[in-house]
């Protein structure tokens, strides 16, 4: 009996993963309004009833995709303290954000479209959690400044700059491809990451850590 339950759980997890991956692709391409549950089901290769078994509504599925995107952005920066080296923390944070842009560009695009459209599908829970995260990270940056580990900078604008610089490679990948005449490779992303780290840290009066690797 336990083996049957375990097998059922495995199938359920696999179906949820298929549905979320299909939804991510459809929402990125057609947006929330332009995506039908049937379209997601077709992309996942599953009956529509299966999709609605795991996710009762399109709204529920869309929010699940947004939550997946937020989980991808979890970083070592989340647990950074004043004792840490700001150059190392910020360099690694930038590298992590760039890697997500390379490996999950559709997720980033969905999140960007949601924000551009007024973030109506993001819950109050998200607003509270995001605000708490921001408050905590700004406190760490301010503590670095007070400890003379970081020249005076406005932490809020520093984070906006990092987000804009890194997520650009996912959200505006079509523009980059047209300007370059080809898609960026993994090697190109590594070069871009080094440049973004150099530019951001340089703007903060910091040097790139000698042990930093992409």
Q: Your description of this structure?
A:
The chain contains 10 helices and no strands. It is mostly helical. The chain starts with a helix and ends in an 11-residue tail after the last helix. The model has no long low-confidence stretch (mean pLDDT 91).
Estimate the helix proportion, in percent: over 70%
> What oligomeric state is this?
single chain
Question: Outline, from the CA principal axes?
Answer: globular
Q: Which segments are poorly predicted (pLDDT under 50) over 5 or more consecutive residues?
A: none
In whole angstroms, the N-to-C terminal distance is: 47 Å
**What's the number of extended β-strand segments?**
0
- SSE sequence, one letter per element: HHHHHHHHHH
SS element count, helices: 10
Note the main sheet: none
Mean pLDDT comes to 91
Structural class per helix/strand content? mainly alpha
Q: Beta-strand percentage?
A: under 5%
Our Rg estimate from Cα atoms comes to 20 Å
Quick structural gist:
With 214 residues, the chain is an all-alpha fold. The protein contains 10 helices and no strands.
